[in-house]
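Retro notes (design track)

What went well: tokenization of the new backbones is finally stable.
What didn't: we kept losing track of which sequence belonged to which structure.
Fix going forward: every design gets posted as structure first, then sequence, in one message. First example under the new rule, 524 residues:
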């Protein structure tokens, strides 16, 4: 059997057909730095400036030479890629290095334990599972306390203490034994309730079975809502509303107390919520950094309720914001931190959840496993990435901040020249977004149709790819926002080229010239 390149009929045919409609189904053959290469009809290699950057996975660019060299060395040395269940977990060094960065940037001395997976969504699922195990153990501890209180009350009853009439009436029973049995029955029923999670409106946390229920975009989420625990979503500029949601969802466990010479019913708050998930810079929501006030409100709600706070830094972490953690900019000190994407150095697949010691449940290590999680190759690539980012006292972070400031200024200048076309430039470091005004009410019918189907930015992307050799996409849940997430090696010339290209797009949009943007089947 010869393995010739396949036509797209066996995988992705629908998706590729859609991309082709905008000229985006280009076949890339090579990648280096900020450039992807494809070959045109005459066999010439065409370089494309890649600003999508593996959806934020390429902080050091495509096939960074230090990472590639390291990978080659690992393979030449026949590194043990697979040695599951042995004395040395390859993730240990990565977790240790990340702990040093946590201490420096987040100002906490507490240890964070690493739990490894293979992708962003998988790491989110691990965090959900760990939070649920923690919740389950807290429920067990509560039920044990209540059992102890029931035993104390039984002893008091044996000693002649009466049961308050209103307690018997409330549960429809006529003896302490029946009351104790009913308390236990109702508490068991309560303890089997599915948990809820809290997340921010617009947030994105992946597309696996549980993580998709924390992702706000209802197109992605609702078809699968029957499969997993649900989230209640909170507007990111009104996080204090979470306290109201917690109150609305409040569930009590029944307890008993001996007071004023009688046995009375009492209540204990049942832990309804598994965790509160937030991205310090909301990526797919359209590149929206959380404000310090939002973060303060998040921490307050979580401290008041005991709900663990999870920082999803899958996209914002690994230096993109100008520090390793975007949490460092807004004062977010979370209980869990999730990393993936760029942690794999642009060539490996890895993800990790870091859990604060005081919230960590060691038994989780015996319950959760993954064949590929923390494998020898990915872990050592991740370690190399951390070494490169941390080198020269964090020169890479300074570079991300400096390049980002330059790019943001250039994008803001364009937005200021075309305020009728662009709504806003947002973001920090090399996690930037530029948002178009919606085209829903455009005078141009094609623009209106693209807006209605959330593909206006795809048309812009097709134009930029073919006319300017620039690859860029919109964010998943804000279809009018172009995401700018190149590597730290983006040059002045590349930033200027992008700004000029944006000006051309703006002129076309201002002229409502859909023909200039439209292209089909021009993929090579
Ligand atoms: C903040 C955030 N969380 C989770 C994910 C999911 O990661 P993955 O695509 O690796 O599953 C993404 C991906 O874009 C993300 O940006």
């Amino acid at each position: 059997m010869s393995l010739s390149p396949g036509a797209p009929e066996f995988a992705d045919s629908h998706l590729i057909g859609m991309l082709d409609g905008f000229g985006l189904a280009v076949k890339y053959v090579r990648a280096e730095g900020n450039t992807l290469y494809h070959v045109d009809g005459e066999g010439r290699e065409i370089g494309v400036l890649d600003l999508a950057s593996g959806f934020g996975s390429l902080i050091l660019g495509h096939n960074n030479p230090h990472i590639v060299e390291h990978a080659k060395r690992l393979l030449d040395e026949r590194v043990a890629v697979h040695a599951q269940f042995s004395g040395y977990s390859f993730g240990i060094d990565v977790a240790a290095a990340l702990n040093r960065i946590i201490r420096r940037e987040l100002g906490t001395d507490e240890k964070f334990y690493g739990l490894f997976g293979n992708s962003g969504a998988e790491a989110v699922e691990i965090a959900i599972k760990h939070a649920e195990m923690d919740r389950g153990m807290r429920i067990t501890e509560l039920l044990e306390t209540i059992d102890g209180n029931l035993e104390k009350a039984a002893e008091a009853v044996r000693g002649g203490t009466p049961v308050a009439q209103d307690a018997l009436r409330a549960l429809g029973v006529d003896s302490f034994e029946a009351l104790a049995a009913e308390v236990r029955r109702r508490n068991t029923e309560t303890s089997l309730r599915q948990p809820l999670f809290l997340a921010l409106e617009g947030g994105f946390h992946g597309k696996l079975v549980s993580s998709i229920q924390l992702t706000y975009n209802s197109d992605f989420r609702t078809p699968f809502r029957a499969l997993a625990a649900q989230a209640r979503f909170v507007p990111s500029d009104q996080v204090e509303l979470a306290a109201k949601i917690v109150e609305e969802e409040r569930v009590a466990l029944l307890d008993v107390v001996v007071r004023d010479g009688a046995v009375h019913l009492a209540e204990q708050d049942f832990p309804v919520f598994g965790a509160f998930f937030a991205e310090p810079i909301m990526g797919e929501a359209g590149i929206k950094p959380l404000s310090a006030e939002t973060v303060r409100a998040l921490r307050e709600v979580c401290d008041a309720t005991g709900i663990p706070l999870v920082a999803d830094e899958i996209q914002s972490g690994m230096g993109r914001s100008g520090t390793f953690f975007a949490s460092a900019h807004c004062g977010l000190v979370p209980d869990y931190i999730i990393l993936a994407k760029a942690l794999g150095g642009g060539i490996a697949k890895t993800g990790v959840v870091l859990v604060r010691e005081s919230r960590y449940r060691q038994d989780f290590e015996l319950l959760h496993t993954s064949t590929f999680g923390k494998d020898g190759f990915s872990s050592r690539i991740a370690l190399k990435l951390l070494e490169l980012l941390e080198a020269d006292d964090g020169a890479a972070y300074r570079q991300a901040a400096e390049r980002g400031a330059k790019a943001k200024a250039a994008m803001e200048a364009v937005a200021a020249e075309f305020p009728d076309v662009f709504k806003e430039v947002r973001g920090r470091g090399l996690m930037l977004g530029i948002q178009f005004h919606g085209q829903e009410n455009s005078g141009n019918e094609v623009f209106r149709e693209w807006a209605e189907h959330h593909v206006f930015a795809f048309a812009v992307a097709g134009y930029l790819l073919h006319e300017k050799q620039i690859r860029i996409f919109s964010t998943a849940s804000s279809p009018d926002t172009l995401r700018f997430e190149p590597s730290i090696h983006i040059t002045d010339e590349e930033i200027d080229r992008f700004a000029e290209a944006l000006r051309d797009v703006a002129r076309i949009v201002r002229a409502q010239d859909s023909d200039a943007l439209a292209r089909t089947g021009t993929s090579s």
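Added context from the reviewer: The chain has two domains: 13-65+392-517, 91-374.
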